[in-house]
């Protein structure tokens, strides 16, 4: 059995068992659905962070905008529909991320990361203050999950099944992507961008495509989250939520395995749901664990060392013959 087949089989088994396992430990199908949605979002973020080596503090912007776009499309043009608003929101996010990426990808390293941070702050401010469009601090509601043919998606287990199928499709598509020649070039850019340029690759074009794919997948997760909760709020575009997405990716391992971000999501959600019952200071303990992950997880430290030295080869002293 190939590694791709094992990965897909593992993903399918987890998706089938997840709601029943969660019910057995006292959680709900809604929580299980949110886990799958966050897995989709972090898989999208990992395309940028794990495979291309671009640190983004701003992916909550795409998550929230995906939710707003899908909700507005249903409320104004596609009543009682779910699939068409979700597809429409993905098209909108792809177009917007192509424009934004064309500008901010002109900068590298910390400057790129700061630009994504500034973009998220801008989106959050607009979402919070443009009350006529987004509902402001009250959020945007008044939409439904609708139907897929005769299937009523108001039932939580039915909606979980739909989200799980979409999540499996995203996993399959991204697995094909990262194992394709395109994915190999992304890894080459992550390891040594200058060398990739010398080999004739249009690095900016590859990074822009990766940025658009990453943002669109995260926007898809945001649209599904909006329909899960029947509301989209400005908090879904906040810097704090961007940090949570990054923490999930880092904990799961950015370079270890494509399913790594999903492990990070499970750890974060279970830690929050179970520890918040016993203490209101669960974020303090999570912060300590996260620091330990960053300091001692081999994949994180080694990758950081490689990137810090990748562009400094001209300053190294050559070894004696």
Automatic annotation (TrEMBL):
Source species, please? Chelativorans composti
Listed Pfam families: BPD_transp_2 (PF02653)
Heme found in the keyword field: no
Membrane-crossing ranges are 33-53, 60-77, 83-105, 112-130, 157-175, 208-233, 245-270, 282-299
Q: Which UniProt keywords apply?
A: Cell membrane, Membrane, Transmembrane, Transmembrane helix
Membrane topology qualifier: Multi-pass membrane protein
Q: Where in the cell is it found?
A: Cell membrane
This protein's name: Branched-chain amino acid ABC transporter permease
InterPro entries listed in its UniProt record: ABC_transp_permease (IPR001851), LivM-like (IPR043428)
Presence of keyword Ribonucleoprotein: no
């Amino acid at each position: 059995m190939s590694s791709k087949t094992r990965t897909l089989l593992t993903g399918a088994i987890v998706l089938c068992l997840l709601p029943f396992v969660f019910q057995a430990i006292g959680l709900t199908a809604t929580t299980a659905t949110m886990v799958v949605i966050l897995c989709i979002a972090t898989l999208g973020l990992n395309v940028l962070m794990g495979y291309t080596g671009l640190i983004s503090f701003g992916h909550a912007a795409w998550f929230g905008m995906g939710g707003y776009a899908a909700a507005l499309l249903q409320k104004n043009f596609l009543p009682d529909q779910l699939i068409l608003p979700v597809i429409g929101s993905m098209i909108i996010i792809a177009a917007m991320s192509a424009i934004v990426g064309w500008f901010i990808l002109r900068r590298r390293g910390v400057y790129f990361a700061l630009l994504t941070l500034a973009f998220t702050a801008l989106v959050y401010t607009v979402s919070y203050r443009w009350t006529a469009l987004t509902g402001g601090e009250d959020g945007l509601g008044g939409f439904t999950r609708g139907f897929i043919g005769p299937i009523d998606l108001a039932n939580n287990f039915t909606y979980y099944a739909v989200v799980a199928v979409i999540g499996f499709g995203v996993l399959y598509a991204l697995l094909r992507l990262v194992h394709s020649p395109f994915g190999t070039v992304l890894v080459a850019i992550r390891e040594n961008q200058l060398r990739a340029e010398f080999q004739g690759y249009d690095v900016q074009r590859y990074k822009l495509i990766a940025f658009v794919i990453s943002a669109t997948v995260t926007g898809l997760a945001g649209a599904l989250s909006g329909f899960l909760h029947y509301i989209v709020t400005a908090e879904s575009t906040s810097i704090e939520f961007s940090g949570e997405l990054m923490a999930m990716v880092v904990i799961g391992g950015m370079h270890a395995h494509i399913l790594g971000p999903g492990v990070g999501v499970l750890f974060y959600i279970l830690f929050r749901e179970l520890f918040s019952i016993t203490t209101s200071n669960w974020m303090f303990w999570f912060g300590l664990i996260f620091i330990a992950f960053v300091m001692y997880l081999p994949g994180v430290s080694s990758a950081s060392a490689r990137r810090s030295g990748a562009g400094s080869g001209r300053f190294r002293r050559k070894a004696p013959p």
